[in-house]
Amino acid sequence: MLKFGIQNGLNVARAGFSEDQILTACILADRTGYDSIWYMDHSNVPQWSKATVLDPWVMLSAIAATTQKVELGTCVTDAIRRHPSNIALAAITLDRISKGRGTLGIGAGEAQNLKEFNIPFDNPVSKWEEQLQVIKLLYGSSPEHRVDFEGKYYKLTQACLQAKPIRKPHPPIYMAAGGQRTLKMTGKYGDGWLPIGYTPELFEDHAKTIKASMKEEGRTQEEQDNFQYALDIDVYFSEDAEESWAKMKEAVKVSLFKPEVLRVHNIKQIEGFDFKKYFTEYSMSNQDWIIKMREGATTIPDAVARSSVAVGTPDDVIPVFERFIKAGVNHFVIRFWGSNYFGSIDKFASKVMPYFKEKHK
């Protein structure tokens, strides 16, 4: 089954929407047939000083109370700023409040949410893997079934939570993975994959790694069949696709500037550019890194960058989604950009979704 959702992410934060406006948009999405609603987890977005950045778990609880059908999840929370017991309980609580619609989207974290708050960003992937192990243990815990865990970063001693999720066996875990190690972890621990900033070629390449990992880990055929290959994708409706693309292509290239994109598309890496340092030290308030990033991103060809976003009329947008479906996407999480946010939600639901719902029912 093909699914479509909306993301309350940088697009909503940048627009500075009020809580009431966000809830109205979510009610609209629920009523017009979307399958899911997601909320980003950032401390701030310093490049946009007038943005409004809210806590995802609190907002998702409010969204749960005002919607009826959509699945609800974080896109994504990170495994560095919170203890895994806190994340597990938040996900269970959301699932209960929403009557079985809760989902946990989770990643290793990023420097932007950590550096300025002096939160250590050491060994993020190793910490994330332990978090996943702890969260899964706690999902199945109770006063009658206490759990122990002895890890390098986290320890549990006869620990338990005292609320059972409605979704069985637990709220699905969607993982934001983009490196070979984390992709293999996704195949081992995840119920879904939720990347951002992808071309169809990169999505197809990475999906193969996840599928191979699931088989290696002995995941059941049912788990493999039900796995959600999601994608966080940008949509910008416009009557003039070329004019709109010209305005946004620099930002799109920046979002794609990562070694895996360069590898898959045979783009020569920038000599002397330290990607490891870039990902662990970059903060959007650091002008030096912003300049380096923009310079590096110019090497990405327009055609490659444009394949990652949907710009123009509904007729322009549909082929982009078709290409990603061919690459393996079965759940789209959409960030709508542009001045008419509510209109975009409605236009996609009325002009694009019916085409795919009929074709992939």
From TrEMBL:
It holds the Pfam family Bac_luciferase. GO terms for molecular function: monooxygenase activity; oxidoreductase activity, acting on paired donors, with incorporation or reduction of molecular oxygen. InterPro entries: F420-G6PD/mer, Luciferase-like_dom, Luciferase-like_sf. The keyword Metal-binding does not apply. Keywords: Oxidoreductase. Gene3D superfamilies: Luciferase-like domain (3.20.20.30). Residues 24-331 form the Luciferase-like domain. The keyword Magnesium does not apply. This is Luciferase-like monooxygenase. It comes from Candidatus Nitrosotenuis uzonensis.
